[in-house]
Write a structure and sequence with these properties.
The longest helix has 23 residues. The protein has a domain of 35 residues. The protein has three helices and no strands. It comes from Natrinema limicola JCM 13563. This is IS1341-type transposase (ISH12).
């Protein structure tokens, strides 16, 4: 019988660049503003929340998460 060879792959994540880190911090700040405004407006449906967060400069995935 032939011997079985196993290879292991190891991956590490590189830290974000200063530019990407700043963009992520900005996105988080805008997301939180939208979240607070939606709560303050008493939104209890996705439609109402969407109406509140539409003007925010967020990707559609972030708006959908709200």
């Amino acid at each position: 019988m032939a011997a079985t060879t196993t290879k292991t792959l190891e991956a590490t994540l590189a830290p974000p660049t200063a530019h990407k880190e700043r963009k992520l911090c900005d996105l988080l700040e805008i997301y939180r503003e939208g979240l607070h405004e939606a709560f303050d407006a008493g939104c209890d449906t996705m439609s109402a929340t969407s109406d509140v967060v539409t003007p925010y400069d967020l990707p559609y995935q972030a708006k959908a998460a709200l």
